[in-house]
Amino acid sequence: MTNYFDMSEVSSICPYCGVGCGLKLEVVNNIIVRTIPDSSHIVSRGHICGKGSTAHEPIYSWDRLTYPLKREKGVFIRITWEEAIKEIASKLLEIKKKYGEKAIGFYGGCQNTLEEVYSFMKLARALGTNNIDSCARVCHEPSAMALKEMLGIGASATSVTEISKAKVLVIAGESITESHPVISQYLVQLKKNGGKIVVIDPRMTGTAKIADLHLQVNPGTDIYLFNTVANYLISNNLIDEEFISKRTEGFEEYKKTISSYTLDEAEKIVGINKEKIIEFAKLISQKKVIFSWGLGLTQSEGVNAVRAYINLALLTGNIGTDGSGLIVYRGQANVQGSGDIIKPNVFPNGIMNEENARELEKIWGFKPPTWVGKTVTEALLEGGLKALVLMNFNPVISMPNRNKVKKVLESLELLVVIDPFMTETAKLAHFVLPSAMWAEKEGSVTSLDRVVKWRFKAVNPPGEAKSELEIISLLFKELGFKGFTSDPKEVFLEMKEVVKIYSNLTLDEVMDYSKPSRYPVNDTILYREKFLTPTGKAKFIPVEYKKMKEEGLILITGRTVTRYNTDELINRTPGFNSFKSPLYINPKDAERLGLKDKDIVKVSSKCGSAIFTLSISNEVKEGSVFAYMHDPNVNYVVCDSLDEESKTPKYKYTIVKIDKVKLY
Ligand code: SF4
């Protein structure tokens, strides 16, 4: 009989979005019976959303993978761990010998701990490849690139806990109520304190409904808006001259670039009347303004949109003080951490050069290669590699142009998938290795506002499933490398020695949810005294608005609060059925196309098509349609056009045509 007096309480961090809420897992007889909020957590402060409170449910799904599988003649057969590791290692070495190390890639990790991502990256480099990346590439790589280049660190410059101190919170391309619900508590406090919320979004989202000012921009025109606002601020002397002269560089060139952006043109291009643009400019000309953003910026106009937005924070001197700064709304529990550690063009200890390679050799016992590897989007959309190891990554559903990704994966000589479930991607693998889920192992994760916290192990994994650290450790040994540990605490200590920006962290602080534990300094605010660029100054980077190459009806994709990414976890949570998104369309577009509410329509792009039920809605701007990204059919339609610099897909800008399906 279950004795509830034997219940233990284990601290953990939510496995879903990047807020990183603190959880208490109630455990009886090696089973998590309930998940409740941890009131001591410095950011979530006793709040969790519906996803957090049911986060333990998928762990007990009937279809957990419990032993290694090998595909033979199209059928998966059970094999032992010994056989799996031996065969995978031997195939990797064979491919390396035949095609060279550049034919091998290691991708994934945003659902993993820092220690797992670090070890995965180290294993790839031990094998001699820099074809490594995480799914941070497909979401906020443009943010990380622009922030690092302009300010010094590719992460939020302030914390969500600062929102309540701000006078104005600007939210661009993000709906907090849908994507990061627990942050809403800070929006409520901001409003109570008399602060204002500005939302920039082509859709009337849940967050836009509570905003004081909603700028319903035309998709793909944010850069024009930001440059026009900058021109207005400079022309009307609404800028912080002292901050600009003492703490920034590049202002004169920037000023010249934005001088041609006018309110009259903005009205036409951005689709917002000039009074609203001026109101926005005046609001952000104050002190204590936080500029925050989500995928609406990065997955349409890429790095340049983020640069243009950060320029506004520099212009108004809103960085480095209480109640001001920049926040990037990250979508997955450790996507910030993964992006910090695993990239094909940088080392974990800095830029990719001989000196840093030699420094790594001293710690690792082998010298990593210095050639620039393929990003995950290049590897999965262009193809050309022969062997891939994917860790908790389901690109067949999550990547744009699904059909193309599937073909690339099918062409591989070796595909290894490490996952707790038989995903659509795992079905294509030669080997599937069953991994432990978040509460069945321990390790640290980095939140969207630089808080690093430890997840403690609550229960054992089922059957023969192993933690990724154990799996990587077995592969490491079998491949003939030395000096690798599967102990998460030891890996954490090595990681913080290697990853310089994490060097200030201590395990004591990381393990105590009531203590702040932020990197690279343990402060909610970055850049109080100086920026972390080589000169110590922030850089204005002028960018020009470029009209999108293709025009027409634009498909935008986004999140809803009850679902999560590819829905592998939510579909395994009791009470949630598999999800089918409607296609939302503005009444004027529906009328023009002769369509009615609930019509069954075929949505086609140059990449593929899918069937949707139409939902006529004023919440969508004329000229665009909207579907939820969690519907697995959506990425048949979303095209694989990439931002030139970051190689991030433009999930929020696909030209489509809509045809009514005739039902007989
Ligand atoms: S807001 Fe995000 S981190 Fe917090 S409980 Fe919800 S899904 Fe989890």
Automatic annotation (TrEMBL):
<protein>
    <submittedName>
        <fullName>Formate dehydrogenase subunit alpha</fullName>
    </submittedName>
</protein>
<dbReference type="InterPro" id="IPR006963">
    <property type="entry name" value="Mopterin_OxRdtase_4Fe-4S_dom"/>
</dbReference>
<dbReference type="GO" id="GO:0046872">
    <property type="term" value="F:metal ion binding"/>
</dbReference>
<dbReference type="InterPro" id="IPR006657">
    <property type="entry name" value="MoPterin_dinucl-bd_dom"/>
</dbReference>
<dbReference type="InterPro" id="IPR041924">
    <property type="entry name" value="Formate_Dh-H_N"/>
</dbReference>
<dbReference type="GO" id="GO:0008863">
    <property type="term" value="F:formate dehydrogenase (NAD+) activity"/>
</dbReference>
<dbReference type="Pfam" id="PF01568">
    <property type="entry name" value="Molydop_binding"/>
</dbReference>
<dbReference type="InterPro" id="IPR027467">
    <property type="entry name" value="MopterinOxRdtase_cofactor_BS"/>
</dbReference>
<comment type="similarity">
    <text>Belongs to the prokaryotic molybdopterin-containing oxidoreductase family.</text>
</comment>
<dbReference type="InterPro" id="IPR006478">
    <property type="entry name" value="Formate_DH_asu"/>
</dbReference>
<dbReference type="GO" id="GO:0051539">
    <property type="term" value="F:4 iron, 4 sulfur cluster binding"/>
</dbReference>
<keyword id="KW-0560">Oxidoreductase</keyword>
<dbReference type="GO" id="GO:0043546">
    <property type="term" value="F:molybdopterin cofactor binding"/>
</dbReference>
<keyword id="KW-0408">Iron</keyword>
<keyword id="KW-0479">Metal-binding</keyword>
<keyword id="KW-0411">Iron-sulfur</keyword>
<dbReference type="InterPro" id="IPR009010">
    <property type="entry name" value="Asp_de-COase-like_dom_sf"/>
</dbReference>
<dbReference type="Pfam" id="PF04879">
    <property type="entry name" value="Molybdop_Fe4S4"/>
</dbReference>
<dbReference type="InterPro" id="IPR006656">
    <property type="entry name" value="Mopterin_OxRdtase"/>
</dbReference>
<keyword id="KW-0004">4Fe-4S</keyword>
<dbReference type="GO" id="GO:0015942">
    <property type="term" value="P:formate metabolic process"/>
</dbReference>
<dbReference type="Pfam" id="PF00384">
    <property type="entry name" value="Molybdopterin"/>
</dbReference>
<feature type="domain" description="4Fe-4S Mo/W bis-MGD-type">
    <location>
        <begin position="7"/>
        <end position="63"/>
    </location>
</feature>
